[in-house]
Amino acid sequence: MRLTVHRSADPQSPATYEVPEFEGMTVLDALHWVRTHHDPSLAVQFSCRSANACRECACLVDGSPAYICTVPATGEIEVRPLPNRPHLHDLAVEL
Ligand code: FES
Questions:
Q1: What whole-number distance in Å separates Cα of residue 44 and Cα of residue 31?
Q2: Which atom of ligand 1 is nearest to the CA of 69?
Q3: Rounded to two decimals, what is the model's pTM?
């Protein structure tokens, strides 16, 4: 899949990554793959990771708000930080 990430703190933003897919992969999983293989400094918030309980992973996915731990990662996806919250770093915002 192709993942484009807009990072609030990075003047080089956005960056696009080709991420190998696996069954059941979510956008949060894809971002972790990017952190592991390209840039460990990429900031993304999460706690429960797929339990859809903490709601810390909210981002804009292809222009719509979503909890990225529940969005399947397939095809082409663009992720941005929520626009209506103060930005902390990259995809992390004040909750
Ligand atoms: S990581 Fe908790 S809702 Fe997504």
A1: 8
A2: 4
A3: 0.93
CA angle 85-63-70, nearest 5°?
85
Instruction: Tell me the CA–centroid distance for residue 36 and ligand 1, in Å.
Output: 19
CB-based contacts of 81: which residues, under 8 Å, 6+ apart? 6, 7, 8, 59, 60, 87, 90, 91, 92, 93
- Ligand 1 pocket test: which of 31, 44, 55, 91 has the largest number of ligand atoms within 8 Å of its C-beta? 55
Atom of ligand 1 nearest to the CA of 55: 3
Go through the domains of the chain in sequence order and give each one's CATH number.
Answer: 2-93 (3.10.20.30)
Going residue by residue through the chain (95 aa), what tens digit of pLDDT does each one get?
Answer: 999 999 986 777 899 999 999 999 999 999 999 999 999 999 999 999 877 789 999 999 999 999 999 999 999 999 999 999 999 999 999 98
